[in-house]
Amino acid sequence: MRLEDFGYNDELEKFKIENNLDSFEIGRIISEHKERYIVKTANCEFEAEITGHMRFTAKSREDFPAVGDWVAMTTYDSDSAIIHNIFPRFSIIKRQAVGQFGEIQIIATNIDFAFIVQAVDRDFNINRLERYLTICNTSAVKPIIVLSKIDLVNELRINEIIESIKTRIKNIPVIAISNETRNGYETINMIIEKTKTYCMLGSSGVGKSTLLNNLSGKALMRTDTISQSTNKGRHVTSHRELIILENGGILIDNPGMREVGIADTTSGLELTFDIIFRLAQNCKFKDCTHTLESGCSILEAVENGELDKASYENFLKMEREKAHFESTIVEKRKKDKEFGKMMKNYKKDMKKK
Question: pTM of the full predicted structure?
Answer without folding.
Answer: 0.80
